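Sample entry copied in:
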Amino acid sequence: MDALAAKTYAEVMMAEPPTGVSREEQAQIDHAFGHVWTRPGLTRRERRFVTLSCVCGKTEPDEVNAHMYAALASGDISREELGEYVLHFAVYCGWPKASQAEAGYRIAAMRVAQERGEELTPWPELPIDTLGPSDPEERLAKGEECFLDINLVPAPARDSPYFQAGIINYVFGHMWQRPKLGRVERRLATIPCVGISRAVMPMHSHVGSALGSGDLSKDQMDEVILQYAAYEGAERGEQLQAIAEEEWTRIQAERAASK
């Protein structure tokens, strides 16, 4: 194994590098940990959010558990933040896959507590007020405001269950507004999810709005995509990169025209 990759693997995964892997698997490890995780442009914490979405999207239990544990044991992401991440992931990558992520998150919390000789704080029943406003019109109005703030375009009409109950009421009327995770972290979690989905319109929407809002610079977006490609493969990385280039060209042209 490449010496830098081995060192970085141990630091990132909070475990010794694997042995007895195939040549292909070793090449992937050397690339991810020797060339991608070591790059500037994104912090290790930021790279974890991108990676978690890739790993949880594959639903390989051992890999999910390993990355959940590493994120928590390293202190890069707190228990509360991981819980919020799983909910966000569920919206963009699917509830069945999120059930595996939730299991991995709980297993990681128990393992970390045991290793530290601590008693795991019970999982508390969350207060009802954490669900946000109960008045439907208030939720919808706030959802429309949040949709515009995140996506930089007006919210869709309330003319279907998908848009009214799902997108406006829940996704932007509640989920994006929850505390514990900031908007940038949610961007970092969402972009790989829409890449995994291979749905072109959401890829354009989320990549374009992350760049257009300034939440992510073009250099940071390139790093997000490089991290994503290390786990999802070059072909998917190239697709997302092409969309990022197209969106960045559009944004620059619009900015130039407005001067």
Q: What stands out?
A: Residues 32 and 230 are 6 Å apart (CA to CA). The chain has a mean pLDDT of 96.
